[in-house]
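Hello Y.,

Per our agreement to keep a running log of every chain we model this quarter, I'm adding this entry. I've kept the format consistent with earlier entries: sequence first, then predicted structure.
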Amino acid sequence: MLNDLTNVIRNYEKVGKRNSKKDEKHLNKHAMHLVRLFMMALDILDQFDEIKVCVGYELNGQKLDCFPMQIKAGADVKPVYETLPGWKSSTYGIPGCHTVKPTYGIRDYAQLPENAKKYIERLEQLTGVKVGMISTSPEREDTIVRVDPYKA
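Predicted structure for the entry above:
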C-alpha cells in the first residue's frame, strides 16, 4: 500500500498529473485513513440555533463526495450542507445575562445536551471515524475522553 501511494505521489510530482481515476481513488482511500477525531471547542457551538455540516460538493450539477483535485475546478465547486439542530441555550460571556453553560466545562459525555451528542454522532457517521476526545472549554482538564488514545 505505501509503495503504491509513494509511486502515485512521485508520478504526480514528475508529470504534474495523475495517470488515472484509479490513482485518485487510491490517494483518497489511503491518505485519509484516520483512526480517531479530536473535537476542539465544542462549547463555541453553544450559541447557534442550527449547525451546517458540509456533506459533499457539487460541480456543474454533478455531486461529489470529496473536493476535486483540479485547481481550476475550485472556483465552481459549491458545498452541499446538511443542517442539524443546535443546542442554543448558552449566554456564557454575554454581559448582563445569566450564565447558562450547556457544554462549557463538561467532562462527561452523558451530560452533553442531546443535540450536541447527535451532532457528534452524525460527524462520526459521515466520516466513519469515532470522535475520541472532545474539549469543552479552553481549560485542558475540560475534556471528554470517549476513547483512550493510548489503547487500541
